[in-house]
Amino acid sequence: MSKITLAVIVGNRNFFPDRLIAEGRKEILAVLKELGVSVVIPNKEETKLGAVETWEDAKRCAELFRAHRETIDGILVTLPNFGDEKGVADTVKLSGLDVPILVHAWPDDMKKMSVEWRRDAFCGKISVCSNLRQYGFPYSLTTLHTVHPQSDSFQADLKKFLAVCRVVKGIRRARIGAIGARPDAFKTVRYSEKILQENGISVSTIDLSEIIGAARTLTDTDPKVKTRIKAIRAYASTTDVPDAALLLMAKLGVAISDWMAANDLNATAIQCWTSLQQNYGINACTLMSMMSEQLLPSACEVDVTGVLSMYALQLASGTPSALVDWNNNYAEEPDKCVLFHCGNWPKCFLPDAKVKTAEILGTILGPQCTYGAVAGRTPAGPMTFARITTDDGFGCIRSYVGEGRFTDDPLETFGAKAVVEVPGLQTLMQHVCEWGFEHHVAMSASQCADALAEAFGNYLGWDVYYHRR
Fold first, then answer.
1. What does the alpha-carbon distance between residue 422 and residue 28 come to, in Å, rounded to a whole number?
2. N- to C-terminal Cα distance for the chain?
3. Is 379 exposed, middle or buried (0-12, 13-18, 19+ CB in 10 A)?
4. Contact by Cβ (8 Å): 298, 307
5. 156 and 281: one domain?
6. Are residues 146 and 247 in the same domain?
7. For residue 3, which of 130, 169, 153 has the smallest C-alpha distance?
8. Do 258 and 395 belong to one domain?
């Protein structure tokens, strides 16, 4: 994950003590440094105390931000005292930045309420937010209205905000690769390239035959092919996989990687059902699993908005994500269900991963051409789910997000599988069906729904259903 850079605006109002600004500026920068955040902030020679108050301060600070606009991912507004609401809003406007903004205010100490110590940031934050809204800028808030930067509450708020910055920046410049045609039986995964492009998301397409053709031109002794075979064997148990199938997997993996590199792609959605098995002789699940584990998410059935959902989860959590089916009820428990797929989940979800045949496809095509599926069970732990889709009738992007947990309830079946508990699952399923969402959902072994909902709704302007029950 790339390092986050924040532009920092320290708000000041001149009839408050300079000491509050100097100490506050120093402390907030120390907190950011501890979290590994790079900063762009005026120095004490550019503006008084390195803070912003006047129109001149705003112009100088904005000029600095413009010079670094390609690297700035978000703006942190911090108020050690009341601050000047115009100075803050003018700085953002003049900078031309279109990034998330977090507004933070320092708390007063009840033992220091004299003129030389009082901050009044509780009140000043309201004025700053009012001006930002009047200027048309969306912004984020801390959980507590005023909060000390070294508190656990602020640390959590800041980490969430950094996740929001990663999601917004990543989605606005995402490049997705679509390999092959959507399987005819999966109309559920249709989407609008034009709506995605309007939101900054580019889709590059290639016919599956071109990827297969590139794979077939590779020799058995090609160094990249040999390296890929070693990587596959090191990744998961392949004791049941014939060498010929491993060779086909390796060549296909090299062909896909070369195409991704040539097009600077962040993620891929691949046609697999059933052309790849019939025309090339393997499943691509292991390759997709390996890419997702390496933070290059990959989804099957050319589910472009599904892999975009995976990418968003990855950006928010900093960990791999997977695409799954909302697949089965779990006994008579209304808040539990089974998640399933043939087997393309990253290894972090399947610590017991084994490369096998795809049992469902094998009943139709024969198992000999379905080697490459990954089988295993996801252990108990935290879970966030998300789905992005294009609503062509309304010309918009819709999404839903929420959290649950993986459980260790008994489950005897094949493939990649998990049991999850989502409070209010039946209400969530009502929403999914009423709005025509896909049967696929992306999942992450993390808790990052807050950041996704904030990024999708507040900054990307998408319709968001946040399932909180």
1. 37
2. 31
3. middle
4. yes
5. no
6. no
7. 169
8. yes
Distances (CA, A) of 301 to 150, 193, 201, 205, 341: 46, 16, 19, 14, 11
Strand pairing class (202-206; 267-270): unpaired
Q: Which residues contact 82 (CB under 8 A, 6 or more apart)?
A: 11, 13, 16, 119, 120, 121, 123, 124, 127
Q: For residue 288, give the amino acid letter.
A: M
**Same domain, yes or no, for 121 and 134?**
yes
CATH number of residue 111's parent domain: 3.40.50.10940
What is the phi/psi pair of residue 163, to 5°? -65, -40
C-alpha span between 359 and 416 (Å, rounded): 11
pLDDT confidence tier of residue 1, bands split at 50, 70 and 90 = low
The residue assigned the tokens 């501890």 is 34
**pLDDT score for 279:** 96
315-356 confidence digits (pLDDT tens): 999 999 999 999 999 999 999 999 999 889 999 999 999 999
The residues pairing with 39 across neighbouring beta strands, listed in sequence order, are 6
Q: Domain range for residue 149?
A: 5-172
User: Does 283 lie in the same domain as 428?
Assistant: yes
Domain boundary among 172, 198, 225: 172
Cα→Cα distances 134→139, 282, 376, Å: 12, 57, 53
User: Is 80 exceeded by the pLDDT of residue 251?
Assistant: yes
Residues 386, 408: one domain? yes
From start to end of 278-432, where are the E strands?
298-300, 321-330, 333-341, 354-357, 371-377, 381-391, 396-407, 416-421
Report whether the peptide linkage leading into residue 142 is cis, meaning its omega lies within 30 degrees of zero: no
- Model confidence over 38-89: pLDDT tens digits? 999 999 999 999 999 999 999 999 999 999 999 999 999 999 999 999 999 9
CB 431 within 8 A of CB 386: no
Q: Which residues contact 201 (CB under 8 A, 6 or more apart)?
A: 171, 172, 174, 175, 176, 308
Co-location of 218 and 120 in the same domain? no
Beta carbons of 446 and 384 less than 8 angstroms apart = yes
Same domain, 186 and 49: no
Q: Supply the pTM of this predicted model.
A: 0.97
* Residue 218 exposure: Cα atoms within 13 Å on the Cβ side: 24
What pLDDT score does 266 carry? Answer: 98
Number of residues assigned to the chain: 469
State how many domains the chain has: 2
Q: Which among 116, 144, 172 is the end of a domain? A: 172
Query: For the chain, what is the radius of gyration of the CA atoms?
Result: 25
